[in-house]
């Protein structure tokens, strides 16, 4: 069948991608947060058998692709996966599907990554689906500083934190300090008979919390760091770390302000990181920390 370039472009906008042989397609299926239930998995297996080549491939960003679909079967496949609430998509100069690690259930997780990713998916992937941006905009949610999903290499990355609440008056300066032994960053040291924590070295992993026999670090503030402007691929750019620790609710607003700022200030074809390099991180952070972007939201989206 002769499929025009215009039709292939239209299909790509729906997450239906041409295979190398140009006779078959792969359907990219979105997950809200990297989690599917058993019924959805069964449905995808059925769809792959009926309308594809029987394979389901996982992408690097936690979507799935059913391969080897003929043009005539594209709509049949989309109708089939819709029965379990799934859709194709995830392409274009838009907010892309969110990536999240398993921090919700991970022993190291400091953040409900899957819950936060689901909130981002509904508010921004779905809510901003009709908003065209200068380029794609990728978001990752990581549960801790182990950095498994590389939040700092996404246009906006969120990383779980647990800032230790150190009560130095309870420190007894033990010769063998559990906190010093536990800290993977070498940030905690006994000096002059008392524990000190270097804030420049501490990555707020939370491993020290509860380790002191005398309860010098009984708890910590839960929150998240935010990186902006990261990217990987042919050109790699580490994201800029914003200056403070945010609550998950604040992080959601920061995502929205970053998207609005990118929509307003970005040039066609320019990635978010390149825009930051052009405008300067100080100016970008100042804009993101203020409320003006949300106040101008309607004008920005209509512009």
UniProtKB/TrEMBL annotation:
<dbReference type="GO" id="GO:0051539">
    <property type="term" value="F:4 iron, 4 sulfur cluster binding"/>
</dbReference>
<keyword id="KW-0411">Iron-sulfur</keyword>
<keyword id="KW-0408">Iron</keyword>
<keyword id="KW-0004">4Fe-4S</keyword>
<dbReference type="GO" id="GO:0000103">
    <property type="term" value="P:sulfate assimilation"/>
</dbReference>
<dbReference type="InterPro" id="IPR005117">
    <property type="entry name" value="NiRdtase/SiRdtase_haem-b_fer"/>
</dbReference>
<dbReference type="GO" id="GO:0009337">
    <property type="term" value="C:sulfite reductase complex (NADPH)"/>
</dbReference>
<dbReference type="InterPro" id="IPR045854">
    <property type="entry name" value="NO2/SO3_Rdtase_4Fe4S_sf"/>
</dbReference>
<dbReference type="InterPro" id="IPR036136">
    <property type="entry name" value="Nit/Sulf_reduc_fer-like_dom_sf"/>
</dbReference>
<dbReference type="GO" id="GO:0020037">
    <property type="term" value="F:heme binding"/>
</dbReference>
<keyword id="KW-0479">Metal-binding</keyword>
<protein>
    <submittedName>
        <fullName>(4Fe-4S)-binding protein</fullName>
    </submittedName>
</protein>
<feature type="domain" description="4Fe-4S ferredoxin-type">
    <location>
        <begin position="162"/>
        <end position="193"/>
    </location>
</feature>
<dbReference type="InterPro" id="IPR006067">
    <property type="entry name" value="NO2/SO3_Rdtase_4Fe4S_dom"/>
</dbReference>
<dbReference type="InterPro" id="IPR045169">
    <property type="entry name" value="NO2/SO3_Rdtase_4Fe4S_prot"/>
</dbReference>
<dbReference type="Pfam" id="PF03460">
    <property type="entry name" value="NIR_SIR_ferr"/>
</dbReference>
<feature type="domain" description="4Fe-4S ferredoxin-type">
    <location>
        <begin position="195"/>
        <end position="222"/>
    </location>
</feature>
<dbReference type="GO" id="GO:0050311">
    <property type="term" value="F:sulfite reductase (ferredoxin) activity"/>
</dbReference>
<dbReference type="GO" id="GO:0046872">
    <property type="term" value="F:metal ion binding"/>
</dbReference>
<dbReference type="Pfam" id="PF01077">
    <property type="entry name" value="NIR_SIR"/>
</dbReference>
<dbReference type="GO" id="GO:0016002">
    <property type="term" value="F:sulfite reductase activity"/>
</dbReference>
<dbReference type="InterPro" id="IPR017896">
    <property type="entry name" value="4Fe4S_Fe-S-bd"/>
</dbReference>
